[in-house]
Amino acid sequence: MSVPLKPIGKEDIRKLESALLVMSLYSAETLEALKNVHERLTWIDSLYVASASLAREKAGIPVSKIAEELGITEATVRRHLKGETKAGQMILKAYEKLAKEGFKVDLPEIIKVQNNEVEKLKQKLDTIKQIIQDILKEL
Question: Is this model's pTM higher than 0.85 or not?
């Protein structure tokens, strides 16, 4: 997927904000923060607002217009863009990574481990199914 670093138009803005949001959501730091029930509700919204703010800012939209479009204050937009919020910091890191490496989502180790465990369970299930089929043949 091609993600424009300097979006032109609504479609490019949507692509950039989506890429930033996905890259941030799958970072180990975000997944760790999401474990906290009290932060879970605000994190997703904050990451969206920060990604939408940065994508629009990169498209040359003034802060006042960004705030109006997103239904937030100009101060909130500025805090996200300057990295004064945790969500803003995460989105800025994602943008830097996007600029250097392109759109790439690295699954945190815990997800990789869980995927391996799922594969092992599938293999055990297949073995059990085979044993049951063999038993049924003998009956």
Answer: no
